[in-house]
Every structure is written in structure tokens, then in C-alpha cells.
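**Protein fold record**
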Amino acid sequence: MSPCVELDPCNGRKRHEDAVRHTGDLIRDTVHGVGAGPSAAPQPAVLAAVVGGAFPDLRRSSVEAAVAAAGDSLGGFVLAGMGLGETRAERAASLAAAVEAMPAHLPRVLVGPGDVLSVLDAIRAGVDVIDTDWPETLASFGHALTMRLPGDDERAARAAARAGPAGWGEAPLARLPEVDASDQAGGAAQRASEAWDQARTDPLTGRPCFPLAATGSPGAAAEGAPATWRVHGSVSDPRLALDRRPLVPGCECPACAGSWSPAALTDKLPSAAADDAAMGTTGYSRAYIHHLWGSHELLAQALLEAHNAWRYRQLLADVRAALVSGGSALEDLCERLVSLHGLAR
């Protein structure tokens, strides 16, 4: 990637104009440096940075300057300086102007924004690659991705079948032994039980937990259920101290399903059917991860990162499948996710 001058949107137009000009010069210098290497060595392609803040015309000018500076050495574009405070409408206008000016055969990479709505907007605008640390950032704040995805019902059904009669569909308090509220652990459990009685909703998804569906499907909603599903939830919620389910019932990530083997991490992509026997049901419970987080153990963040990365890859796998299907599949998927999670349109 070429160097660039990246500014946040609070800077004025004049500074962004200077940034576009200086970035064009940096791209030209980068191409010259690449071309000055040994003639026998393969010449790497240059990913040109596209800047211009929230000004669509400057974004277009930045693309045109990159094309003029890099010529045949241009290998693609990196949309930089986004997700730094601009509004969704401003970002959409900047993306549209930049992508429209880009040669269609070159890849387009968006750096920065990674939340679900930003990803859907970027893909619909024509972005090919998302470079973001959003799932890891959520994990660093103790949040697990709980967004509802296509295929979750099927995965939950497989998990319930593996778990047997006491599967995911059972209320999280039902299998717990009696606790002594006089000791520290018992007191914490008692407070968690009272919190469950008051809220009666899943602490991660915000969905009602009582009565749970007989199948344990995360898609089944009780009467009077909230209209939306949380994209992510905090593992610090005290109710999780009594919750023996995985972060997302049916999730086949290493944290929820419990397999840390290289085969599980490399071969069992979320888009592929999981090997039920290999994945097993030995994952880490919400209660355990809640305990780790409260104890400031690094394993809590490691498990959350593994889970969030898996769910995020599943989201992108579903998007790729919709793109391959063609027609209105992508728009239908986007509308479903936006509606289900109550995202701003």
C-alpha cells in the first residue's frame, strides 16, 4: 500500500485538498521506488490510498490522481480515512464517488469501519475487501457477537441433537444445584438468579428466555418478544454467572464448540458443514467466560476474539453466498439483517 496523508473529517476542505495532492505525490514516489528495483525481480503491484475526507469530489480526484501516478503498476485501491467521525450519509456519498471513478477490474479495500451496517453499505457500494479490527475491539471491551445469521437455526438444531435431552433449549437455571447464599459464590449466584427473574431476557441477545422454545432454536421468540436482536452483548452481565449455555447456542466456533485443533480452525470454515463428531459439545459456557472476564483473565478476551472472528467470517460468508446467487439475494440479506437487528436505515 502506498503512503498517504490521512485526516479525520473535522479538518477543513483546504487541508483535505492538500492531503489529496500530497498522497498523489507519495503514490508517484512509491511507484518510482518499486520500478528502481532489480530488473529481474518481479515488480509488486501498488495499492493506492484514496483520501479526501467526506468530500465526494475530492475522493474522486484522489482516485484519478492515483490512476495517473501509478499507471500499469496500480494493483488496487485502499479507501483510507473513513470511520473517523463522518456520518453514514457522508460516507456513502464518498464511497459512491470513489468507487465510480475506479477501474472495475481492480480490487477495492475499505480500511477502518467494520460494524455490520458499515460492512453492508460498503459491499453494496462495490467494496471487495474489508480490513477492520472491529471484532477484536469488541472482544477487548468484553463483548461477544450475537448477531442472528442465516443458518443459525440449522446449527442450533445440530447442537441440540448433540447435547441430548438437556440441550440448549433448557432454561439456563434449570440444571443448577441449590446454592448457599451465605458464602461469596452462593451470594453471587443468588444475585444472578434475582436478575434473571427481573429481566427474563437473554443478557447477550436481548431476546426473551422464558419460555424457551422446545427446540432451543435462537430464532424462536416467545409472545411479546422484542422486535430486534442485539448485534453484540457484554459478558460482564451478572446473569451470566448462572448461564451454562455457550455464547451463541449452535455456534461452531472454537469458544462455543470447544475444538481448538488446527483442522477446526483451517478446514472447518463457517461456510462449510461442520463435522459434528469432531466439534463435539465441549465448549466454554457463558458462566465460565463471565467468570474469566470478572477475574481479569486474558483467556476471556482470547475466547471472545475467537468467537467474534468466527461469527464475523460467517457474516461475510453469507454475503459472498448472496453475491454468488445474484439477483436480489444481496439486497434481501441486507434488508433481513437490518430489520432483524434494528439497524438504522
The two ends are 33 Å apart (CA to CA).
